Give the backbone structure.
Amino acid sequence: MRRKVYSLIFCLTLLAPLLIACNVNAKESPEIVAKIDDIEITEQTFSAMVEAEKNIWGKLNINMPEDDAYYEKVVLKRLITNALLDVQAKKEGIVVSAKEASDQLNKQLQQIKYLAPEDPGKISFLNRIKSSGYNSIEDYEKDNRVLDAYRKQLARVKLRNTFYETVSKTAGLEERGKAWEDYKNNLINTGDYEIYIPVDIKGFEPVRPWERYNNQDLNQTFATEGMRQGTVLPCRIIYTA
């Protein structure tokens, strides 16, 4: 059941965060908070994602930490981890073509288009598109920055699947998931990167949302509350890295 809840919540990870990084009206800040190989994480992207993270969990009302320091660690660890995965995927020759990324993105967006106009998840997504400077889903889909971000995400998924092939064939889903988390944590602990702000991510483990509940039906709680708040979208999942 936990996997199902996790899937519902992270349905937005392939779409909504791209809005933060690809605001058509925004001018990228020259201030850099971290650098991984030739990848730079700007203060603008970092701050926007921290606020988005706080808003998402705040709407679900599940007693998550309130201090900014917690969310700064969550976001910075995620951004650096993703960058390290991008570097690793490149080293292993993992490639996602523009057409493959475009086709997969289109499939995800079609799920949203088919929702009823009054659907809270669809309304929320369209509002985020407009606030990021896009007039429609079609405009969003055509943005090369969105496509590039999605292409990187798919490459991370391919890297994860390649890693799974190295795990014991008898390992269950939970065991493979833990092995992947250990792999990513090892990248954080041993990887080559620089952080220019006072945020320490080594050894940091974010709170697991389901642990904030007692003996409730987690799937029903997250799905019902998430749809009410327009936070969770009922679309097909491509599991993220």
